[in-house]
Backbone:
C-alpha cells in the first residue's frame, strides 16, 4: 500500500465516531479532540461532516450520534451470513438451557459479539451484537485464542492490560498459555467467575469444514443457577451438538 | 456550514462502508464503484484505508468487512442510554406474550431497530438492532409518522417507494394520512399483514416527560398465533404499561 492510497480524512473520521463509545453520548469538540488525540480543527470538520450526512446531531454545543450510524455496523451484520446462520442455534441453546447463548469472533485482544439469544437478562453485563469483552478472561476468548499458535498469543497478551476482575482471574501470561493448551486439548473453555463474580460460562469453537476455528459459541449463567458440573455435563453436549450442526452447514 | 468544513474523503468512505449492506459480503472495487456511484480510484483508496485500519479484509480480488466495523454502530448503541433502558421492558413483553418485541426510531423514511427481544424466531424477517423497515407499512413506522405533522409526512411519503408488499398494504398517500390520524387519536397502530403475509404487529409511542415521541415499541406475532382482537385486548395494555413505566424513567 502506497502512502497516497491512505485517506487521512476518512481514517480520522472513523476515530471520531469511535470516540462516542463507552457511554459518552454527548461530546463537545474539545472532548472528542482529547479522546482521539486529533486536533480540534480536524475533529470539528469530521463532526460537521457527520451532521451534514445526518449521522450526528449538534445542539450548538454538543454532538451526539444518530441511529443512522447503525447502518455502518449493520453493513457487516447483514453482509455476513454467519450471524443469521447462528441465530436459530443460539435461540435453541438459550431455550434449552434457560440461559443466554452467544457467538463471537476475535478482534485483536477482544471478542466481539456477533449474535446472541437470551432468555432473561440476569447479568450486570448488557451484551448486544458489537459488544466486546477482553479475550484473556472470557470463555469465547479462551477458545479463540486456543485456536492460535502460542507465540502470536503471547504477543497479543503482552499488549493486553491483564486486569484481575476478580480474585480468580488468570493474569499471568504463562498460566494463561497453559490453560489455553488445556482448552485446545479438551475442546472447550470454562470460565468460573474470572470475568465477573457470580458469572460462569462455557464455550466451544465453531469450526468450518477445513477445521479452522471461525467463531466461538457459549452459554453463560449466574453461578447460583448452574454448577460447573452442570455446565460440563448438561450444557457442553448441547454446545458441541450445535457446533457440529453448524460445521456441516458451513462451506 | 462552510464548504471547507466538509471532509469529502470521510463522506465517501462512509458510502463505501454502506455499499456492503443487503447481503453483499464480498465486493470488488468495480462493484463498490457501481453501487456508490463513486469513481474507482476513490473507492480503491477508501477500501485500502479500511484494510489498513483492519475494518476490512482483502483477498487480492474482493473486499469484505471485518467485525471491527461493529465498533462504529456500537458507538451509538453504547452511547445511547435508550436501548439499555428499553431492553428489560422488551424482554418482559416478549416473555408475557410469547412473541417478539422491538423498539425503533425513525431514520428518514425507514424505522431503525434499536433494541429487540424475541422468544422464538418464527418470522421470515430476521431483525437485529440496526435493521430497517419501511415506515409507511410497519406498526412502529405508523406510530412514529403519526407523531409528525401531516405536511412533513406527505413530503417523506412522496420520496418513498410505496410498494404493495401484500394486497392489504396501504400505498395511497391520502389513505395513509387518514390512517395516521386514526393512529394519533387512538394512541396505537396495528398492522395486519401489510408488511408481510401472515404477520401482525401492534405499536405504541414511547414519549418523554415533555410528551414528545422519542421511539416506538411493538409486539409482532404470526397471524396464526394471534388475532387482531387478542392484539388489542391482551397485548396493547402490556405495551401501554411498558411505555408508561419508561416515560417515568426518562428525563
Residues:
Amino acid at each position: 500500500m502506497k502512502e497516497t492510497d491512505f485517506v487521512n480524512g476518512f481514517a480520522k473520521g472513523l476515530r471520531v465516531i469511535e470516540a462516542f463509545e463507552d457511554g459518552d453520548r454527548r461530546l463537545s469538540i474539545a472532548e472528542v479532540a482529547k479522546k482521539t488525540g486529533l486536533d480540534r480543527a480536524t475533529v470539528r470538520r469530521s463532526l460537521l461532516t457527520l451532521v451534514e450526512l445526518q449521522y450526528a446531531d449538534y445542539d450548538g454545543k454538543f454532538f451526539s450520534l444518530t441511529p443512522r450510524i447503525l447502518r455502518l455496523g449493520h453493513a457487516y451484520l447483514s453482509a455476513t451470513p454467519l450471524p443469521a446462520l447462528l441465530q436459530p442455534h443460539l435461540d435453541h441453546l438459550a431455550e434449552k438451557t434457560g440461559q443466554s447463548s452467544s457467538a463471537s469472533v476475535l478482534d485483536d485482544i477482544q471478542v466481539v459479539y456477533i449474535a446472541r439469544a437470551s432468555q432473561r437478562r440476569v447479568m450486570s453485563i448488557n451484551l448486544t451484537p458489537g459488544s466486546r469483552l477482553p479475550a484473556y478472561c472470557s470463555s469465547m476468548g479462551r477458545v479463540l485464542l486456543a485456536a492460535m499458535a502460542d507465540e502470536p498469543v503471547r504477543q497479543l497478551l503482552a499488549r493486553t492490560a491483564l486486569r484481575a476482575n476478580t480474585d480468580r482471574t488468570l493474569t499471568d501470561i504463562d498460566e494463561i498459555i497453559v490453560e489455553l493448551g488445556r482448552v485446545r486439548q479438551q475442546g472447550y473453555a470454562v470460565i468460573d467467575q474470572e470475568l465477573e463474580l457470580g458469572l460462569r460460562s462455557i464455550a466451544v469453537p465453531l469450526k468450518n469444514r477445513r477445521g479452522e476455528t471461525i467463531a466461538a459459541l457459549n452459554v453463560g449463567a449466574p453461578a447460583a443457577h448452574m454448577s460447573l458440573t452442570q455446565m460440563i455435563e448438561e450444557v457442553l453436549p448441547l454446545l458441541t451438538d450445535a457446533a457440529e450442526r453448524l460445521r456441516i452447514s458451513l462451506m
Summary: Chain A touches chain B through 70 residues (CB under 8 Å). The beta strands of chain A are 56-58, 63-65, 100-107, 110-117, 132-134, 189-192, 199-207, 213-222. Chain A has a mean pLDDT of 89.
